[in-house]
Design brief:
- The chain is about 35% helix and about 20% strand.
- It has about 220 residues and is of the alpha/beta class.
- It has a single domain (about 5-215), classed as TIM Barrel.
- Strands 1-8-7-6-5-4-3-2 form an eight-stranded parallel beta sheet.
- Strand 3, helix 3 (about 75-80) and strand 4 form a beta-alpha-beta unit.
- Its EC number is 5.1.3.1.
Length: about 220
């Protein structure tokens, strides 16, 4: 059974505390926090103050996803703001091993994300050092996009590498997740499902989380 990490990018920002408290009471395992800088991705979301505000009310670990250029500048700030795990993009980190080591030294779980066009094999030399690999199943930057079918193959290949080398990292998928694709993603090896629009656009978000959790 996979864990569910609802993305607060799709929450009601005018009632953010209410939505975080709903997640606290739900079957969610994590709260996913999408940070966008308008440079690495064509959108701006929010930054450190909002992360701090969420952490103030959260009872679930904050799964912070940095879709930003030069993320090393802000790793310590996001850890201080409450991040339990910090995921950076392979495409944004020319010195990825150093970045991953820094995240772990700060006391957070390091994760690496891959854009849809980036091959899983690009991570072979870092897989033993990460706690999580995030496969983007949409192009990062906006919620509500259509799920990219090639994601299943990438997840299966990543799982095979994990099994081959005896690694323990978790596999996370983000983008277009719903009850239609969740069971197959879990079958292929996904441990954490990120869901934003499906959860927060539902009449009953807590029930939507429960539905995904039972996939």
């Amino acid at each position: 059974m996979a864990e569910i990490a609802p993305s607060i990018l799709a929450a009601d920002f005018a009632n953010l505390q209410r939505d975080v408290e709903m997640l606290n009471a739900s079957a969610a395992g994590y709260i996913h926090v999408d940070i966008m800088d308008g440079m690495f991705v064509p959108n701006i979301s929010f930054g450190i103050p909002v992360c701090e505000a969420v952490y103030k009310h959260a009872q679930k670990p904050l799964d912070v996803h940095l879709m930003i250029e030069q993320p090393d500048r802000y790793l310590a700030d996001f850890k201080k703001a409450g991040a339990s795990g910090i995921t950076v993009h392979y495409e944004a980190c020319p010195h990825l091993h150093r970045t991953v080591q820094h995240i772990r030294e700060l006391g957070a779980e390091p994760g690496v994300a891959l854009n849809p066009h980036t091959p899983v094999d690009n991570l072979v030399d870092i897989l033993g050092d990460v706690s999580l690999v995030l496969i983007m199943s949409v192009n990062p930057g906006f919620g509500g996009q259509k799920f990219i079918e090639n994601t299943y193959r990438k997840v299966a290949h990543l799982r095979s590498l994990r099994e081959k080398f005896g690694y323990t990292f978790k596999i996370e998928v983000d983008g277009g997740v719903n009850p239609g694709n969740a069971p197959l993603l879990i079958k292929e090896g996904v441990d954490i499902l990120v869901a934003g629009s499906f959860v927060f656009n539902a009449p009953d978000p807590a029930e939507a989380i429960r539905l995904l959790k039972s996939s």
